[in-house]
Design goal:
Largest sheet: 8 strands, mixed
InterPro entries: Asn/Gln-tRNA_amidoTrfase_suB/E, Asn/Gln-tRNA_Trfase_suB/E_cat, Asn/Gln_amidotransferase, Asn/Gln_tRNA_amidoTrase-B-like, GatB, GatB_C_1, GatB_Yqey_C_2, Gln-tRNA_amidoTrfase_suB_CS
Catalytic activity: L-aspartyl-tRNA(Asn) + L-glutamine + ATP + H2O = L-asparaginyl-tRNA(Asn) + L-glutamate + ADP + phosphate + 2 H(+); L-glutamyl-tRNA(Gln) + L-glutamine + ATP + H2O = L-glutaminyl-tRNA(Gln) + L-glutamate + ADP + phosphate + H(+)
Mean pLDDT: 90
Helix content: 40-55%
EC number: 6.3.5.-
Strand content: 15-25%
Number of strands: 15
Structural class: alpha+beta
Bound molecules: zinc ion
Strand order of the largest sheet: 5-6-9-1-10-11-12-13
Number of helices: 16
Shape: elongated
GO molecular function, one term: asparaginyl-tRNA synthase (glutamine-hydrolyzing) activity
Keywords: ATP-binding, Ligase, Nucleotide-binding, Protein biosynthesis, Transferase
């Protein structure tokens, strides 16, 4: 039996400023050590000032994960020396005087399974070390404090995962949830990192630190389970230890650091008073919370009759569900959902993906209406969509510019069909003996009309003309 527990660090990337000073939370746009001040650089005598917005956003995450939220929260100093930590302590949270972390126990559903959340804490991110030099002889270590003090939420789970796949599914759900709440963009480099605790057959727990991507986390868990199973099979005891994920070699490596034995000498952060979270604030936060992914999904299915699978994909993605909300009408909702999930979400081209953000609600609404009223076939609507992304022109303009309008005139369509019948006499004979081969002729008509003919009426007219 495998048990996996996670500690996920997630930056609150949508905040304006750092956790204890007014430097930018978005450190990614700066040259090294440009986004620092005496507070986040740990200068003696500087005093932290708590970012209230960060407390609110972290509380929202706790609520969304069904965690209890205490009436008072407190901050602690976690003391250790490391070059990326300018103060030589990290301001974080700890539950030694009762539950004083921003979130207490909670749950999140992953498929049919409930994963228990142990706690959620708000803390500051350290700086970053950059290693330069090609060999160990000339290697130098540079330090960039731009990230120091960035608001970080740590989500700790119980060891409820039994497979690496469950871990991956959970992270995808969590990532969608954070995006939906509007608190973070977990896809940004380094915005979501994790440690995993893995044990097999009730043996010792091994902690894997320093995993930077979901993909690697799943791989690391796989590797670690295989490694421990193999030791277990040979009756070799599994050491309780910290290992690091080597993402180049794709293996876990025993860590020689003494992190496990370190005494952090936690004590209350005297420069930040306890923070009271009044019931009114909690009520206010609840009312500010956006509709949850599951309730969105249910609404799409019941109100608009959108197939469950489509509703699932659409509701999980904040960017596209926002786009859906802005562009659909009561009558074209299903068609808009269809365009978004089958066409836009499948865009391979990164340039087009970028352009998708420029697509206006009017474009989508008009395109869906044009398909529904038969002005353009579903087939041609794909070309129209690519042209919109390229040019930004209106839907009606594009339909007329590219001559994408449906061949709805039956006489015109009949003319084309008659020509195909006389050109393809062999295929016509074949269709008479084997009606299924008529699809070849339908394809020819589609080709001749550049996909503008309605497939059903084409088939019916072809059958009538051939006499089958
Ligand atoms: Zn600062």
């Amino acid at each position: 039996m495998t048990k996996i527990g996670l500690e996920i660090h997630c930056q609150l990337t949508n905040l304006q400023s750092k956790l204890f000073c007014s430097c930018k939370a978005n450190y990614r746009e700066f040259e090294p050590n440009e986004n620092i001040c005496p507070v986040c650089a740990g200068m003696p005598g500087s005093l932290p000032r708590l970012n209230q917005e960060a407390v609110k956003k972290a509380t929202m995450i706790a609520m969304a994960l069904n965690c209890s939220t205490p009436e008072k929260i407190a901050f602690f100093r976690k003391n250790y020396f490391y070059p990326d930590l300018p103060k030589n302590f990290q301001i974080t949270q700890l539950n030694i005087y009762g539950d004083t972390s921003v979130g207490g126990s909670g749950t999140i559903s992953v498929g049919d399974k409930k994963i228990r959340i142990t706690r959620i804490q708000l803390e500051e991110d350290p700086g970053r070390l950059i290693y330069e030099g090609s060999s160990s002889k000339n290697q130098i270590t540079l330090v960039d404090y731009n990230r120091a003090g960035t608001p970080l939420v740590e989500i700790v789970t119980e060891p409820d995962f039994e497979t690496p796949k469950e871990v991956r599914d959970f992270l995808n759900i969590l990532s969608d949830l954070l995006k939906n709440l509007g608190v973070a963009d977990p896809s940004l480099e380094g915005a979501m990192r994790a440690d995993a605790n893995v044990s097999v057959h009730g043996g010792n727990k091994v902690e894997i630190k320093n995993i930077g991507s979901f993909h690697d986390l799943e791989k690391a868990a796989h590797f670690e389970i295989t490694r421990q199973e193999s030791l277990h099979d040979r009756d070799i005891p599994i050491a309780q230890e910290t290992r690091h994920w080597d993402d180049r070699r794709k293996i876990t490596v025993s860590s020689r650091s003494k992190e496990e034995d370190m005494d952090y000498r936690y004590f209350l952060e005297g420069d930040i008073p306890w923070v009271k979270i009044n019931p009114e604030i909690r009520t206010e936060l609840k009312s500010e919370m956006p509709e949850s992914i599951s309730s969105k999904k249910e609404r799409y299915v019941t109100k608009y009759n959108i197939p469950e699978q489509v509703a699932d994909v659409l509701s999980s993605d904040k960017f596209y569900s926002d786009m859906f909300e802005k562009s659909h009408t009561e009558s074209n909702a299903k068609e808009v959902a269809n365009i978004i999930t089958t066409e836009l979400m499948g865009l391979e081209d990164t340039r087009e993906k970028r352009e998708a953000s420029k697509l206006t609600a009017t474009h989508l609404r008009d395109l869906a209406d044009s398909i529904q009223t038969g002005k353009v076939s579903r087939n041609s609507s794909k070309n129209a969509l690519h042209e919109i992304l390229k040019t930004g022109k209106s839907v009606s303009q594009i339909i007329s510019d590219l001559d994408l309008g449906n061949v709805s005139d039956e006489l015109e369509l009949l003319k084309i069909i008659d020509k195909i019948i006389s050109d393809e006499s062999e295929a016509v004979e074949q269709a008479k003996s084997n009606p299924q081969t008529i699809n070849f002729l339908v394809g020819k008509v589609m080709q001749a009309t550049k996909g503008k003919a309605d497939p059903t009426s084409t088939l019916n007219l072809l059958k009538k003309q051939i006499g089958i």
